[in-house]
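Usage

Read records sequentially. Each one opens with the input sequence:
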Amino acid sequence: MPFTLQNPSPGNPVTDFIFGLPPVTRALFAGTVGTTLLANFAIPIQTFLLYWPAVTQKWQLWRLLSCFFVGKLGFNWAMGLYFLYRNSIELERGKYAGRSAEFAWVVMLIMAASLAAGYFFELAVLAEPLMMALVYLWSNDSPHTSVGFMFGLQFQAMYLPWVLAGWDLLMTGSFPVVKLMGIVIGHGVHYAMDIYPSSNNGAALLPMPSFLTNVFPQDPNGPTVGQAGFAVQPPRATGAAPNLTTAGRRWAGTGQRLGGS
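and closes with the structure output:
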């Protein structure tokens, strides 16, 4: 049975915005806002962090999901939320228009790979790898889109993930391990979902589970243009050079290691 939610307060600008989002983007946006507000005002933030002993010994399985949504309120968190939203909605209403089930599978693959990498790098928060992987996927889908960065710098979207990693290095003085992790994960998902099938007569390397099509039924007439007050680029022909400017300051901060402050 398809999973649908009805707007409880039509005419309310907040609920109109939330319920105007496509389903996967709505889940990511609402999950990030809701979890972060709980962690900052109601429940200790440690409850949401990825501590593997708590997962494996105490069966606190919610940490496997909450670590992608939790954050400390501030400018960096707000910018990270914006770019998570921006890249997610452009993918879901562009490349994956009418195919939210497939986009949900992409997000699940990113999360699974991030959990594996987070285990080895001892990361307690995985919001940044998720955001960077989506940035990488969007930049591959719209490589010639014009992107605006700080100090009036303009470049094509294909360079955006690397500019973000370099900016993080410049601002923190630390090697941008977490951002590069997101780039690697994004490329791995891009290979599994796009490159491999195109080179093997459409054969799927990581087939999408059938239950996702029941949760997110395919809609061939799904929206390709933003319906919540934000313009979104529709799919373009290969080689096109759309002029979409993304204003940038500082994206999300560096990842948080276990036991970090």
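Summary fields computed downstream for this record:
- Strands lie at 146-148, 154-156.
- The chain has ten helices and two strands.
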